[in-house]
From TrEMBL:
It comes from Maricaulis salignorans. Coiled coil: none annotated. Residues 189-338 form the RsdA/BaiN/AoA(So)-like insert domain. InterPro entries: BaiN-like (IPR004792), BaiN-like_dom_sf (IPR023166), FAD/NAD-bd_sf (IPR036188), RsdA/BaiN/AoA(So)-like_dom (IPR055178), RsdA/BaiN/AoA(So)_Rossmann (IPR057661). NCBIfam families: aminoacetone oxidase family FAD-binding enzyme (TIGR00275). Its cofactor is FAD. Keywords: FAD, Flavoprotein. Residues 5-391 form the RsdA/BaiN/AoA(So)-like Rossmann fold-like domain. PANTHER family: OS12G0638800 PROTEIN. This is Flavoprotein, HI0933 family.
Amino acid sequence: MITYDVAIIGAGAAGMMCAIEAGKRGRTVTLIEHSDKPGEKIRISGGGRCNFTNLHCGPNNFLSANPHFAKSALKRYSQRDFIAWIDRHRIAWHEKTLGQLFCDGPATQIIDALRGEMREAGVGVRLGVSVTSHMRKGEGFELRLSDGTLFRCRSLVIATGGKSIPKMGATGFAYDVARAYGLDVTETRPALVPLTFGPEILERFKPIAGVAVDAIVSAGKTSFEEALLFTHRGLSGPAILQISSYWREGEEISINFQPGFGIFDELKSQRGENGRQAIGTAMSVFLPKRLAQLLAADCGLTGNLADQSDKKLRALEAWLRDWRIKPTGSEGYRTAEVTLGGIDTAGLDSRSMEARHAPGLYFIGEAVDVTGWLGGFNFQWAWSSGWSAGQHV
Ligand code: FDA
């Protein structure tokens, strides 16, 4: 029976990076992927241009039961290291906004570069096969694949990602393996996902579906200032995707439509100049018109600007700074960009990603309870954790 030094399950960003690093260290590596192509999420990410990292990436851009866990890997293989890797492969890139780096051309360039490095490092890639059984054998593991192959490995790396987008081959495999070897799994839920509303609120939102606006969106003590979008199902856009990772079912979110200047002062001055315009029309100086009309009505204001007292305008300003709404749920794993939660980091070594009480077993990438914000952070975690494990397997 063949014995590999390393078997890696899952050929996503984390699995491929780990395979390259292990192969470069002279390890014999087999990479097993149940889809017929590696790196499918890289290919579709960032609208096909892959937001592959973020210039400002740091541990504070991640959610985890242990916020310190990601520090070591992110420091040992940082965004600067991955940018240097991208440059070495002559992949042209640009910063879009907020430090988010995207390929100028198709994201498949990154997959091709990863595949090229795997070839050079002697990594054997098996596509279209899955693991049907795994068990501890001596100091290593014995695995059987769906094509009947049986082999052993000294190190087993689980890089099968989270549960988001089951249509693309996402499974809960990593969590099952973790539990089988005595590791805990924290609560998992969809994150970076649009939020949805019940029929009553949706009926009110109908006229503004498709309207986008910049806003500060908060859940509890966390806020993000980015665009939000009203949809036929609820709310989407970067600000909403970001806050979805912090929002809990049953809670309200607060939206601040503050335009960056005093709403009261603006409306009072407009009232002096043209008091006969409708309140919703006056508000359209700083908000999309359809949204302004809905918000004015929501606040109980009707009629012309001249009809509004200072007190009412002050109340409107306060209302627009803290517009509260309670989502009923999210669009779920069907559209979520990531899975929040995962393999409990308490059971892992933060330098190597090895399970503390199951020597030779490693977990990397999205499967682990380290979840990044929107903006290239999740890929950076995949590169960093994959690279770190690759130095130890
Ligand atoms: P990933 O999910 O990429 O790879 C896991 C691999 O394991 C897959 O190839 C899967 O088929 C395979 N697999 C699963 N179960 C298996 C099993 N039982 N046996 C064998 N193989 C198995 N992030 C970011 O930083 N910038 C961005 O622009 C985007 N954009 C984006 C868009 C969309 C639509 C989505 C869904 C997600 C993003 N993300 C993102 C998130 C990012 O794609 C994600 O965090 C990383 O791909 C995670 O990398 P992993 O290698 O950990 O898992």
